[in-house]
Amino acid sequence: MDVYAGARRRVAGKGLPVVTLLDGVFDAGGAVAAMRSSLIDGLASTPLAEFDADLLVDHRATRPRITFHDGSFSSYTAPRLAVDVLTDDLGNQALLFSGAEPVLGWERIAAAFGELLDDVGAGSISVVHSVPLPVPHTRPISIRRHGDDSGESIGPFEIPASFSHLVETRLTEAGRDVSGMTIQVPHYIADSEYPPAAVAGLEAIAADAGLAVPTEELRQAGREVDAHIAAQIEDNPDAERLVAGLELRYDVDAPQLAQRSTLVAEGEQVPDGDELGAAAERYLRSVDEAEGQQPKDQEK
């Protein structure tokens, strides 16, 4: 890890909040990538520390982009794993640890990142993930927080680990003030870009880190995506029934959605995409069976 001395001196002792946005096993709705781009492109950004991504990142698993134009290649976009100092228009600052997930050296990189935070005297840390879950796109995006002192008991269950999960674990073990945020993205659009999920994540980051984050472009893109989804659902009765069932479940479970996963039970594995779809279909069948018991003012 190369640390830029000038940037280090400018942030040392300020207790700046930290945001972690790293690639991993999930990036449902492209939320993490969109948030990262919005923060780096929309705010003033100064490098604080950089890892040698050329040695640490599996280029075959996450192919870098390169441009072909007029018979030649150019504009190669190299992967990056770095800590940047963000500054908004009001002068508020935060540290952003972001980039490609390393294929090697997870423990060493997590330890180096923790040492950097100790060195500059960083403050609270937000680690953000996005996952696909059976929630409707017609309701507000829910963010489940973890790593706090709420005393809530969930699990245990196992999921495929991402590097950001390890970072969150090691920082918590070190006694730091760490808050994990899991953005819940509708599973039926999780493989596509879904800007409203990124907007929800940025709003949570703004609240935690005290940053004025630009979101208008993402909001406009989200309105266009929602309109496109609505048009598709209108022409597909099965999809319309699926969303209606998810809406009913969301409305019933709304008080708990921000605190727990709606699919994972104690001792179970996190389901894959096929299992998510099967679970949604089972739920819709149960809704059909119970429809006759619903009060008239709740019928669709």
Could you characterize the architecture of this molecule?
By secondary structure, the protein is of the alpha/beta class. The protein has nine helices and ten strands. The protein has helices spanning 5-11, 31-42, 53-56, 106-120, 163-173, 195-209, 216-234, 237-257, 273-290, and strands at 2-3, 18-22, 44-50, 65-69, 72-77, 81-87, 93-99, 125-133, 142-146, 178-186. An eight-stranded mixed sheet has the order 1-3-6-7-2-8-10-9, sandwiched between helices. A hairpin with a 2-residue loop joins strand 4 and strand 5. Helix 2 (31-42) packs across helix 6 (195-209) and helix 4 (106-120) crosses helix 5 (163-173). The radius of gyration is 21 Å and the shape is globular. Mean pLDDT is 85; it is low at 257-273 and 290-300.
